[in-house]
Every structure is written in structure tokens, then in C-alpha cells.
Amino acid sequence: MGSGMARSLLRAGLVVRVWNRTEAKARALADDGAAVHADAAGAVRGADVVLTALNDGPSVSAALEAAADGLHPGQLWLQTSTVGPDAALELAARAGELEVVYYDSPVLGTKAPAEQGKLTVFVSGAPEGRERLAPVLEAIGQRTVWVSHEPGGASRLKLVANTWVINLVGAVAECLGLAEGLQVDPRLFLDAVAGGPLDTGYLHAKSAALLTGDLTPSFALSTALKDTRLILEAAEQAGVRLDLTEASAERFARAEAAGHGSEDMIATYYAGRAEE
């Protein structure tokens, strides 16, 4: 996701400096025109906008501390990772201590939209920074949804959106699993719903991944499990019971335990196999 966004920024003609905890991943962007830095502080020093794209809240927090010496007052921080509302508020508080302007900005989309600059970006933060952020947001996304002026709002919306995605993927996996079990050609099912009110592009994309055996992750199963746990934590705090999402979490956990964590999240399909 981070590499895709970096390339989208470069295509837009923006000056991009990159750092990654695994330097080889950052080095891969050098041929695209990015300036690669060996340390986080060097990558952010003097930048107008800092963008982070990592797996979870602790990783973002660690990256922020690694970059702290290079930050300057008034710098804008676009935090695009899905970390959950609580972590978003904690990061905002730390940004305040560093005098950095924090934007809670999780993105909706996977690897391909990130590479194409077609993400949807949910943003919560001070409206005064919108103009300065515009070139970055326009480069990485096809749409920006300004949620609120205070951090946390965008992260809450992202959990709602991810609940839809996660349970939709589980439904695709279970339909194809039942088709296999009943000796029904899954393509008959896909053809039966094609073009009708029950059809979705996601159904065909995820089915194609399974049917071709190409589980290269556009969104890794282990990351989906992390997000599902964030959703369930937030729901519990809100007094909302999410039976489908709890079941999705259980399937993701079984598939991860069976060795599918690094594959695309549609590998939750394999959690329905009795031998696994």
C-alpha cells in the first residue's frame, strides 16, 4: 500500500522521500524517482506533508518516534493506516506533543487502487490544512471524504466500511465452499447472479483469485484479521453485538493457523475445509 501510494505521488510530480523499516522495500522505489533514506528522521526532515502507511498502531507509533528528530512544528501528518479509534486518538496526542498537525486518514482500497491512485481516503482533522494536503490526497485517491474536524472520526468510519468488506469476503468464501461440497460448478453460481441485484464486482474478483489459485495478496488475510479484531473491540465498547464479524474473525484465525496468513484474505475459504 505504501509503495503504491508513493508511486502515485511521484506520478503526480511531487517530491517524495521514503523510509521503510526494511530498507530493501524502500530501495525498490528509487527507480521511480523517490529519494531513499536510511533513517526515518532524514525522510521527514523539511517535508511539508508526512505520510505513514504501516500495518498497525504500534508500528505507526514506533515509526513516529523514529522520525521525531526530523519533524518540525506545523508539519502535516497524514496517517493512512487502519489503527482503530483509540489508537488514532493516542497518535493525535503524541503528534500534539511534537507540534505536528495530525490527520486521521485511513484509506479504503487494496493494492491495485493504491498503485493506480484510486483509493478512497477518509480524513478527520483541522480544516486549515486542506489546501496544503490537496495535492497529496488528489494523487493517492479518487475520492476524499472529510469526516470531521477531530481525529477518530475517520477511523470509526473505516471500521464500518471494513465490516462490510470482511463479511462480504466471508460470504464469497462460504458460497464457493458450499458449491464445492455439493459438487456444483462455482461458475454456475457466478453466472446465475451476474448482472442482477445480488451481483458485485468483489464477488467476481475474489472468486477469480480462488478459481485460478492466485492468492497474491491485495489485502493479506493476517491484516484482515487484525482489522476484524479492531472492529470487534470497538463494537464491544459501543455495546453492539456483531455475530457475523465474530464468525469472520474465527474463520480468519483458522485460516491463519493453517498457514494462509500471508495470502489474500479470500483464503478464509480454506477455513471451511474439514481437514484444516
Automatic annotation (TrEMBL):
Q: Which residues cross the membrane?
A: none
Q: Which organism is it from?
A: Streptomyces xanthochromogenes
Q: SUPFAM superfamilies from the xrefs? A: 6-phosphogluconate dehydrogenase C-terminal domain-like, NAD(P)-binding Rossmann-fold domains
Q: What is this protein's record name?
A: Dehydrogenase
Cite the Pfam families for this sequence. Answer: NAD_binding_11, NAD_binding_2
Q: Does the keyword Repeat apply?
A: no
Q: Where is the 3-hydroxyisobutyrate dehydrogenase-like NAD-binding domain?
A: 153-268
Could you tell me the keywords of this UniProt record? NAD, Oxidoreductase
Domain 6-phosphogluconate dehydrogenase NADP-binding residues, every copy: 1-146
Family recorded in the similarity comment: Belongs to the HIBADH-related family.
